[in-house]
Amino acid sequence: MNRFLISCSLAVPFLLLGCSHSGAPVAAAPAAVSAQVVRSVSAEEPDSIAAAGTLRARETATISAQVPGQIRRVLVQAGDRVRAGQLLATLDDAALRSSLNQANSAAEAARRQQMAAQADASLAAETLARYQTLQQENSVSPQEFDEVQKRSQAAQLRLESYEAQTQQARAAVAGAQTQLAYTTLRAPFAGVITARLADPGTLAAPGLPLLQIDRDGPLQVVTTVDESRMASVHLGMAVPVTLDGLSRAVASRVAQIVPAADPASHSFLVKLDLPARNNLRAGTYATAEFPGATRQVILAPRSAIAVRGSLACVYAMGAGSVAQLRYVTLGATHGEAVEILSGLAAGETLVNSPGDRDLAGKRIVPANEAQP
């Protein structure tokens, strides 16, 4: 009897376990969703160097006064086109004109003194010639001849002194004329006035900028390239430039590389020549794409990228074609594809155009063959 009870008590748990196992719920299969699929790929892309720059004229001149004086007139405004040699501004020239008049008077006085000395020297030379004839005839004493000879030599020295004074006076006149010419400011070349920095009545000082002018002609892009990337930049290389307001890139060529790096930024100044185009304006923002070596990248179609909050993501198909939500880091755009910096490997199948649908955990039934 006891053995029977013990056997029954041992059998009960096993029966209960068997009943419990047979009643467990079966996991439901993931919902199936039909969707277009695409594939991420590995590709080689040029490792371009993007450098921001500014359009500038190939030649720019800052017009400033070379002599002090009050500005009398400014004849141009910013934006005016000017021709070479055109009068731009004038300074008060009263003091310099007075100096020129004094120099002219001094030069005239020196010229008259030179003429008088020339007459004395000519007379002394003629007298010496007659005394030389008399000396040959023994008609004059040696003392008289020496006196006449010395007077002739002194007259010649005075003439040479007045000639030097005359040359000095003429140089003073030329200097005064040059100083007076500095009171008229003219355009050094044909171009456009880009800045007017002073108005009439302002006291101009030597070196103080008054106007700025850009030469007519093709423009340049002035940019900087980090010293670590300079090995791929050389004179004459073609560089596409993207400009604000233009849908297409503009072709340019490297015209100048400043050989010394900026010690603060460790970058080199590079100038790119642009073709002559009427729709380009100095001061415009530009981006230059310097071509470099190729690099291996992972690309995915832009249509496969979804945005959740502020993060980019994709739905990648895992085991059993179940969609997995993957957050990715995007890089540069290459046409209809975008570079994936992290979060995705090459060759993975992605849901195309997921939109706002929540596909995570759902089985994807491809409605097409995966396209790269």
Number of separate strands: 25
What gross morphology would you assign?
A: rod-shaped
| SS content category | alpha+beta
Average of per-residue pLDDT values:
87
How far is the N terminus from the C terminus? Answer: 77 Å
Main sheet: which strands, in order across? 4-13-16-15-14-17
Helix-strand pattern, N to C? HEEEEEEEEHHEEEEEEEEEEEEEEEEE
Q: Which range does the strand content fall in?
A: 35-45%
Estimate the helix proportion, in percent: 25-40%
Poorly predicted regions:
1-23
Rg, Cα atoms, Å: 47 Å
Looking at the chains present, what oligomeric state does this protein adopt? single chain
SS field, number of helical segments: 3
Number of domains: 4
Architecture overview:
With 372 residues, the chain is α+β, with helices and mostly antiparallel strands. It has four domains: 32-45 and 295-366, conserved putative lor/sdh protein from methanococcus maripaludis s2 fold, CATH 2.40.420; 50-57 and 218-293, Efflux pump adaptor protein, beta barrel domain (Elongation Factor Tu (Ef-tu), domain 3, Beta Barrel); 64-91 and 183-199 and 207-214, RNA polymerase II/Efflux pump adaptor protein, barrel-sandwich hybrid domain (OB fold (Dihydrolipoamide Acetyltransferase, E2P)); 94-181. The protein is 28% helix and 36% strand. A six-stranded antiparallel barrel has the order 4-13-16-15-14-17. It has a four-stranded antiparallel β-sheet with strand order 3-18-23-22, with no helix packed on it. Residues 1-23 have low confidence and may be disordered.
